[in-house]
Fold this sequence. Notes:
Blueprint: E1 16-20, H1 25-36, E2 40-45, H2 48-61, E3 66-71, H3 77-88, E4 95-98, H4 116-136, E5 143-147, H5 170-194, E6 200-204, H6 219-228, H7 235-238, H8 240-247, E7 255-260, E8 265-270, H9 280-294
Parallel strand pairs: 1-2, 1-4, 2-3, 4-5, 5-6, 6-7
Antiparallel strand pairs: 7-8
Helix pairs in contact: 3-4, 4-5, 4-9, 5-9
The chain binds NADP nicotinamide-adenine-dinucleotide phosphate.
Amino acid sequence: xSGFTDDDVVDQSxxxxxxxxxxxxxxxxxxxxxxxxxxxxxxxCRSADRAAEAIDKILAGEPDADLAFVELDxxxxxxxxxAAEQVAAEPRLDVLVNNAGVMMPPxxxxxxxxxxxxxxxxxxxxxxxxxxxxxxxxxxxARVVVTSSLAHRGSRIHFDDIDAAGGYNAQDRYxxxxxxxxxxxxxxxxxxxxxxxxTIAVACHPGIADTDLARHLPAFIRFGxxxxxxxxxxxxxxxxxxxxxxxxxxxxxxxxxxxxxxETAGPAVIVRSSSTSRNTELARRLWxxxxxxxxxxxxx
Length: 300
Ligand SMILES: NC(=O)c1ccc[n+]([C@@H]2O[C@H](COP(=O)([O-])OP(=O)(O)OC[C@H]3O[C@@H](n4cnc5c(N)ncnc54)[C@H](OP(=O)(O)O)[C@@H]3O)[C@@H](O)[C@H]2O)c1
């Protein structure tokens, strides 16, 4: 297989996608392509202004694009619940693209008191997905997509200190959140399948893509980024795995990533994630913890 690119996204007329973190980076590129293929795209963003700018940019190229803003701060479970309520009032939801994320910010807590990377990247995703499962189930062959990272490799879930109160290593906690994304996706897909649902869950990662994600990295690394640019995926190419996961002919529980240079760049294909990410016992433990922390139970 030569790999999936935006050219492989077929017509999506009549389908509705919620893309989180759609105002910039991979989320923006994903929203743009989906809108160009005729989908209704809901942009789940924490800033109304940044969402409006993104909508204007998409409309400049696709004047007929069907777009709407959904206010969503994944670091605030009340905001997640309000966003889910707004989306539930839509005529339909076919695909939830969980893309929003933060990488290596200074130590901080979410509104609900969780370490921010675990809180935003995993718990926000978990709660939003759980709240939208009934909406997705209204139509056959709905899909949940979750964006992980190469950084999931070599990571672990710190069940003994989930909020990093005992010491914060930003890189380690980013890896934890991206491992959690995969454990959650695979467990979700297993539970949906066991319950006879036609909704599937698919994971993806963009390799290394040129986006705003590095905003929290030290200045000396950020200044080096232009030199490394030729080796990165553009943001548009980084969205190919997301687009394949969201629209391609793939099975639930699949992991999609770039095909070239050690999964850092190139067209999207099915790739493998770490054995830890496929550990079912770990996944169940994380699921139970996520229900306890968020107070949201997917009920599956
Ligand atoms: N770029 C890469 O090389 C790479 C590699 C591996 C994985 N990823 C993953 O890809 C996903 C997208 O990242 P990106 O590279 O496109 O980064 P980005 O350009 O920084 O975009 C991240 C998006 O997430 C949003 N976001 C952050 N915190 C949020 C919150 N609390 N609530 C709602 N939205 C929030 C951001 O909104 P604001 O603009 O308002 O901050 C932005 O729209 C992330 O999950 C990331 O972990 C990226």
